[in-house]
Structure formats: structure tokens, C-alpha cells
Write a sequence for this structure.
């Protein structure tokens, strides 16, 4: 994996452990020489993540819509900051630039980005790994809900398995790098993988 897209909050949350986890991700990516691709902001967990990667000597690509440059305070110290016209362009470019995806704690924007990219994987739009860093058990209620979707027949177990969940940074990165998509499902192009 050469580039990992990380979705995370533009807020820091209520527990310093979330910022510590974001910083650990940034450092780990730099150590592995994996370029960070993220939303381009300089605030909240986004800023912590990018700053940690940069301080550790990593490369960071930010993608931010013009409308959010001031709101999320675009990070001007990145290796590469790309300003786009819309959220749709942002997500499409982040997906194009990345070999995998991970979500740290965040709000509805983080969840929306993660669920869209995971849905694209389910539909065969891409075959890249998707994971959640469940720092301090932040995603425990979501994981319970997803497992309930499987039990209730709304999510196939093979599609649930596409969402990797780990509590620590290094196991998550290892799982993302080892990921192989499930085979045999119909895809949007009509072919089976």
C-alpha cells in the first residue's frame, strides 16, 4: 500500500485518547512510508493526524473543497494540498488517490465518507480495503449495529467482513495491507470477481 486515505473528525472529541490515536496513525504511516491522504483540514483530529505524519517525515496529501478552506482551516503545511469545487469531487479524488481507507473517530461526515467508500467496495466499484480504528471503543455501538444488520438479513456476512475493525493502529494497518476482497459476488459491471 502506497497511499492510505484516512477519514476523521474536524473536532478532537471528548477524550485525549482520540488525538493520541490520530497521532499514532500519522506516525505509523510515515514509518511505513505510506502517504496519508485526508480531508485537508488543520483542525480537530484531522490536524493532529496530518501534523504527526509530517513531523515523522511522512508525505501528506490533503483534499478540501473551496467552501471548507476557511471553515475547516485548510492545512497550508502539507506536501500537497488540493482544493476542489465540491464534496463530491473531494471524495472522488481521495478515492482515486488511495490504495485503502480507514476511519478514525469522527462525526456524521466521517461516517458518511466511510459508508460511501465501503458501499463502493460492496458494489465492486473498487477492491480496496476499508477499516475502522475503534479507538477507546468509540465504534463499539456501530459494530454491534452492523452485526445486527447481518443477523436481521440486511447485510451479508461477506460484505460485513469487508469492514475491518481493530482497536490498535498497527493491527489495523497490517489487516488493511493483508486484505483480499471476497470473490464470487456480482458487480456493477455484470461480471463476478
Amino acid at each position: 500500500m502506497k497511499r492510505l486515505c484516512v477519514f476523521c473528525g474536524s473536532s478532537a472529541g471528548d477524550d485525549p485518547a482520540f488525538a493520541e490515536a490520530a497521532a499514532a496513525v500519522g506516525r505509523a504511516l510515515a514509518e511505513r512510508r505510506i502517504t496519508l491522504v485526508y480531508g485537508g483540514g488543520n483542525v480537530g483530529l484531522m490536524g493532529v493526524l496530518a501534523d504527526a505524519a509530517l513531523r515523522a517525515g511522512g508525505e501528506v496529501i490533503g483534499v478540501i473543497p473551496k467552501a471548507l478552506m476557511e471553515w475547516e482551516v485548510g492545512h497550508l503545511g502539507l506536501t500537497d494540498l488540493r482544493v476542489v469545487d465540491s464534496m463530491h469531487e473531494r471524495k472522488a479524488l481521495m478515492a482515486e488517490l488511495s490504495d485503502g481507507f480507514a476511519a478514525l473517530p469522527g462525526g456524521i461526515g466521517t461516517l458518511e465518507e466511510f459508508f460511501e467508500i465501503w458501499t463502493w467496495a460492496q458494489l465492486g466499484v473498487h477492491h480496496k480495503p476499508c477499516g475502522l480504528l475503534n479507538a477507546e471503543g468509540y465504534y463499539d455501538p456501530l459494530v454491534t449495529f452492523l452485526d445486527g444488520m447481518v443477523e436481521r438479513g440486511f447485510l451479508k456476512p461477506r460484505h460485513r467482513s469487508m469492514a475491518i475493525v481493530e482497536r490498535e493502529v498497527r493491527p489495523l494497518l497490517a489487516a488493511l495491507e493483508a486484505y483480499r476482497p471476497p470473490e464470487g459476488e456480482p458487480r456493477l459491471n455484470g461480471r463476478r470477481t
Summary: The mean pLDDT is 94. The first strand starts at residue 3 and ends at 7. Helices lie at 16-31, 44-55, 87-97, 108-123, 140-151, 157-160, 169-178.
